[in-house]
């Protein structure tokens, strides 16, 4: 963002924004796919999707919500 608005160089912001959007959509789709396969409750799916909106939320959700999901 400083490059785009401070120095008027929009190129890197476009690619970083595109990557961020693709990863966000991928995470949301992955949550839905895994929820269907593992028969998650609506509450767990809700918190997993809310975690996608918070900075470092998926990492916290991984530790708090999904730690018992791993087989092995």
Automatic annotation (TrEMBL):
It is found in: Cell membrane. The keyword Membrane applies. NCBIfam families: integ_memb_HG. It is a multi-pass membrane protein. The lineage of its organism: Bacteria, Pseudomonadati, Bacteroidota, Cytophagia, Cytophagales. One of its GO terms (cellular component) is plasma membrane. This is Membrane protein YdzA. Keywords: Cell membrane, Membrane, Transmembrane, Transmembrane helix. Residues 1-65 form the DUF3817 domain. Pfam families: DUF3817. The chain crosses the membrane at residues 12-33, 45-61.
């Amino acid at each position: 963002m400083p490059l785009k608005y401070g120095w008027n160089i929009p190129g890197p912001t476009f690619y970083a924004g595109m990557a961020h959007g693709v990863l966000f959509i991928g995470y949301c789709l992955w949550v839905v796919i895994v929820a269907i396969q593992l028969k998650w409750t609506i509450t767990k799916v809700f918190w997993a999707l809310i975690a996608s909106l918070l900075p470092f939320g998926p990492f916290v959700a991984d530790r708090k919500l999904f730690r018992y999901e791993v087989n092995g």
